[in-house]
């Protein structure tokens, strides 16, 4: 099967990092097609950037000509899954939700550790709407921007581990979710510091997407019906720089 | 004061209709500046169209050169408020939330009556995230598309009234919110049918925006901090048709 | 329009203070008629005093001969709105609810800072019943009695600011509600200390009441039907001292 | 032990009815002292009447000179427990809460069947604040006023049974609470119609009050501290007719 | 009446301790029949041990030949009530639920203080399923195993009091539940340290069971219907050591 | 990898049916080891039978000598996962939770359709404790016992489809979970009737178990720590018939 893995930001290095992480866990017959939006922000931290990304992701996926069996959205706490699900007939798995689903399978109460404080509300929102907030005891920020997490993995691992330890000791978490794309490499560091399982959203989403495909399950069109035909101006976005 | 009233779809007739409705309730010193996005769908019903609208609304508001004191988002159940709030230093009032806030001030349990069934989930999501789902007993669809509500007010009033009566009798609602921009004209018809107060989102949002301005209250930058400076490709969207 | 502003305690100085604060934010055509109950406690902090106030407020409002367009209940965390709403055909806006509604319009998560610890449960109750508890992260007490807040504004401002800072830093609030009548003057002090918007209940309630009146919205009689005619002994309370 | 049983309305016949019902279930050493408020409404159905009753009940209990070990509030869905609890050092058991507690001990999901639709919101409020709403599947009204329930027990039993059957069949209730004082006599009729246990609030409250007394448990003064000494005008209410 | 009091573990000394505590609060006509399961663990702390206990308790109660009026399950946070309730026609009162019900009658917000951290999740689960989690502010562990609580009451009282004080001061509890069988003796020590009421589950359950019996209330067979006749292998467990 | 698939009842035909269904969806390298408890009921419908099954399942899995990588519990709405998770160091995936997790990935709101009404409460309990109740709109019973579902697949498919259609049309479900082991064969029938995705718990659980194994994720020992060493009488159960 072929899984499209969509980075939410425009930084190719992140796309390549998550492609490798996804490929490392994918089953033998699974091809990972990692793509980068042709417009948007180099890292997605604000809602402003996130709304842009929602459109850019739809734009990018709509441009794929080869068939595929599922889509994985690699961003964390992102808007946009519902819109993409309306456009496609294959499962769309969001990394935020995937991490939380897998965390619930492993323990009783999970926490999320992420980049900047400004993303906390958005992550809580996504978990709440996905019906997954019940077992979430906290969402904590390291204070490190997304690209710094990528650029300085040593510092990233240290800060993630520190917050994860607090999530376990003070908030009562027994599973930790890493709340940012491209952090799969750091999971073992956080696991060593906390002695609890650590879930990376992108790899979790790839695993769940494979499961859905293997079970021949499609997204519900009662939940995500295709858009009705109507006059739309300015879509697709033909002339954005870089497209 | 000047309030920017943003239509979510690209149909100018809707913009004009809500402009008139807003002007009818605005206080003496309030100017309503109604604007239409320069790209997007003629009516916003799907999540796909709604993600487009979120960007198109940010795009359109960012292009306003004159100062303004508040923004009212006229769509119902729309994504996008958080992003716009990050870009601005003035209150951004969403019509969905405004209708529900006002409904809570008038009764114990409110219901929303809206256009198509496909919008129900999105509306419930917005109410839940705004912390307003507790007193909402139901969200009901008339089955009429947005533009048909505009085009055939007689039929619209009838179907809205029918569903509103069911919301009162079967769901226990004691206030009704009209869940679609441009329906203010129909409120009295629904009120006559149900004998409960009927709230229109756009006019409610204009009233709340005026209140916030008069109280000198700004949106919380702890909740909606300005985006950090970073490389963004393809924004603003310079060459979309119609911009 | 004329708005009746009802103090919950019998201290005339508080009535005068809130009258001035309300008048300062009211629109040009709005007259504030501030009234003091003719019996009850000099400050309302216990449930015992609050039940007395609920009756005293109904008693006092029922004695008003001039027409009015809305009532604002200035107490915070008070019982009694439902009863008064049954007796009247105009909007009754409670300051507790008003503060929370406005807070939700400004940010994601609000906190309330109030007088004594003993009032916390009652305030949480009111917010829960109004459907507004979802976004409330904490209700904190300064430990200062109501009249001391009035008498020593300097100390009041300091303690309110201290608790508000804790609400922001430890509880994650991004908006603060001042949980006591007559504290509007202190809002700017708390705002300076926290850098988040600070909402005063009385002024918020006046603004919302004006909005409801301007939108021609009445309270739902399905929610608050007039009492049925029946034998009532000892009402109105004719001979209470001071009446 | 002596238990004070307080009727919420001023109808002596109701006081006598509940006294008999309470006495029938009380243990051998338990004396029931049933009292009627000296002012208020002949039946309590509105919030207005209920706020009056809250004060009248405090007034009446404060006038009792003999020692007592617990108080049972016989009204259903009433305001006022918190205030009375502040004034006393003995358990105050509300019939609404008592019925729901006992129902939770007998099954998984309970429903309440009561008098008029106008009381539904108040009953739901009380259950929610008591932390007992989770297992409540519905609150249903017979449409019969309180005094008619008393006056025409045959019709009352029939309507209660009809609604109780709906609560079981449509709402999934497996226990029924009778939501009005003085209905204990009708429990067996409703039980015969539904084949599920039927709980009367007054008798349940008497049983729970006895348990608390026998366990030497006092109400929490951290939850219900005595009012602080302060100037109170018009309390006690010396000259209300009938006092 | 005769109440069967079932210890969840196989330690006879615990059975004797709870028997004495139950007898001390039981009414004059109440006989306490305390029984010990014939298989299982010497103390029940894990879910593994608890699942064993659920069966062992059903096995032990099924072996009782004399008639009885109610059953009290003395374990705290235990699985198994539902199964036993299906087998019997008399009330089955679980000590966990009983403690929480009584706590809700005494204050606004209760906390549970128990033995090991590993039991916290199970206790929270029981409270949630019983519909009693709403007013529970925390469940805290002393870190002392069950048998150590029995063996060293001095140390037990000290650690319970320490955690109870934290529950009051930091979590806002105004009632404390002792979350382990056999701790009734320690209640006064914890009460002295916290100045709030302290509820022991076993004695609370005995009191509630007596109330249900005196009110002639049976468990709902709609909630807990008798098992259907069917082929069961290995039940009753004829040859387990000790049976 | 090797996955142990545990039937909850003692009917070998059911074990064989679910083994085939599991094998049909398992990946190429996955071996399914299906086992039947050596004691317990021929079908598990009551809580009584379910408590027996919890122990019988632990007993049966503990007897497996070969290594395995994960366990799938095939029962629906069963007690017992927590205990087994304490005894093992590999993932334990419950079919109830698996179905709900997968349903959440496919739509917004799911319903469960199951065998007898008596199992509804138990299923709701499991979903609530797993943090998955938020998006569950209903749990519906066909009224058919478990073994009849197996014996008469035609009738089973018809009744399942009827209830599923009601779940979609009346409750608003957009995904259906089949709430009983061995119903995978019937999914396509229900899907044809409803036009929404239909999830079978056993096959979903096998897929999720494979994902967890491939991601090298272990259950949290902070959530499910191994039992402490202690005296246990009558375990393992050496002489139960058939063991």
Tell me which protein chains meet in the greatest interface and how many residues each side has.
A-B, 53 and 53 residues
Given this structure, which CATH class of the largest domain in chain A is correct?
Alpha Beta
Please give the CATH architecture of the largest domain in chain A. Answer: 3-Layer(aba) Sandwich
Which structural class should the secondary elements of chain A be placed in? alpha/beta
Chain oligomer state:
homohexamer
The helix content of chain A is 40-55%
Shape of chain A: globular
Taken as a percent bin, the fraction of beta residues of chain A is 15-25%
Q: Any idea of the CATH topology of the largest domain in chain A?
A: Rossmann fold
Element string of chain A (H = helix, E = strand): EHEEHEHEHEHEHHEHEHE
Structure write-up:
- Six copies of one chain form a homohexamer.
- Chain A has 243 residues and is an alpha/beta fold.
- Chain A folds into two domains: 2-95 and 204-214, Rossmann fold (3-Layer(aba) Sandwich); 96-201, Rossmann fold, CATH 3.40.50.12500.
- Helices cover 43% and strands 16% of the residues of chain A.
- Chain A is built from nine helices and ten strands.
- In chain A, the strands form two sheets. Chain A has a four-stranded parallel beta sheet, with helices on both faces. In chain A, strands 7-6-8-9 form a four-stranded parallel beta sheet, with helices on both faces.
- In chain A, helix 2 runs parallel beside helix 3 and helix 7 (153-169) runs parallel beside helix 8.
- Chain A is globular and about 55 Å long.
- The model of chain A is unreliable at 239-243 (pLDDT under 50).
- At the C-D interface, strand 3, helix 2, helix 3, helix 5 and strand 10 of C face strand 3, helix 2, helix 3, helix 5 and strand 10 of D.
- Strand 3 (40-41) of chain A pairs antiparallel with strand 10 (232-233) of chain B, so a sheet runs across the interface.
- Chains A, B, C, D, E, F: InterPro entries: Asp/Glu/hydantoin_racemase (IPR015942), Hydantoin_racemase-like (IPR052186), Iso_Racemase_Enz_sf (IPR053714).
- Chains A, B, C, D, E, F: Belongs to the HyuE racemase family.
- Chains A, B, C, D, E, F: This is Aspartate/glutamate racemase family protein.
